[in-house]
Design a protein that fits this description.
The chain has a single domain, classed as Peptidyl-tRNA hydrolase (Rossmann fold, 3-Layer(aba) Sandwich), CATH 3.40.50. It contains six helices and seven strands, in the order βαβββαββαβααα. 36% of the residues lie in helices and 19% in strands. The protein is globular and about 50 Å long. The model has no long low-confidence stretch (mean pLDDT 94). It is of the alpha/beta class. Pfam families: Pept_tRNA_hydro.
Amino acid sequence: MVGLGNPGPTYAGNRHNVGAMVVDELARRGSASLTKHKARAVAATIRIGMLPGGAPGPRAVVGVPLSYMNESGGPVKALMSFFSVDPDHLVVIHDELDIPAGEVRLKKGGGEGGHNGLRSISSSLGTKDYLRVRVGIGRPPGRMDAADFVLRDFSPTERKELPFLLDSAADAAEMIVTEGLQTAQQKFHSPA
């Protein structure tokens, strides 16, 4: 599971970094610290949830590229190579302008919708056929440029709701691993 964002404290609170924030939550849940990896990323191996009977759930690698968003493909491919992960087992967690703020949607494959991080990953892997946790940030207000919008910090109102969004997106990512895409879609795409 890879969360997308831009490196450094300047970008840490940006809407574009919500994927990296979700990976931080997954690492926290797995009682792991993301550590620097030779793949130009930070990564950790965690267990996802619990199996019936209380046994630890499946093992997963979580990571965040240390490159800028538009260069995410190289570090993602290097992590996948190091941990022997096939593209059909890759889950990319990213911000999505075309989904209302606070909502989470899941899919496999498809286009990049102008998202440079996805474009870089698809180009590096030679396929668009990987799983995606799309974290809704909504459209920019008025005539604001989309690039300016994603590179701004969440508003004070959005920050109040952010823990719930990160929790929901982390739940969705875990459910894809433990129960599969279709079951996760049924849960997260249904009206509450």
